[in-house]
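tool=predict chain=A
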Amino acid sequence: MPTRLPSLARPDPTTAAPSAAPPLSLEERLTLVNAAMTARLDEAAVAYEVNTAHIETKPLDLTDVVTGPLDTRAAPLPDLYPTPVAAVLQRAHQRLISGGWCKDALVDAGGARCMLGAIRIEAGGNRRLEADAARVLLDAIRRQFGGEVDSVPSFNDAHGTSRVPLRMVDQAAGLADARGL
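tool=predict ok
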């Protein structure tokens, strides 16, 4: 019987060509990019270690760097406003920043003050100066938020954070200065 040689003919056209893989999802692509970047960063770290191994460094003595706690108390601002009401409002603003702001009380247990409490302490017992500062503050609040605001304490207590009340005391200081008060 004769030996059969393998056929050099083309394959049968009925066999299907391998299909293309489905496209990768965004998560799969991000995972591949993350893996590639991690490999590149690891390679760069090794190259850095090799390239800097010959550089001599002396250990850092932390006693030369860390000297102690810094004085973190805020320095009082100079009086920017020459008029008395504007100066009281500016000092009240600074007191609210440094001493803290509160609501529902003139002064809370921690010493934080509301807007009116800060004005009262900065007026130094001068009731007329305190009343003038509170009136200018209420005018500034009503300019910004409309005439439905009843009083400075109700405006103060309506806020959950100090951001808006502090901004209004600062704006009131500028308003008092513009009015020459």
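The chain has a mean pLDDT of 83. Helices lie at 26-52, 84-99, 115-123, 127-145, 152-157, 163-179.
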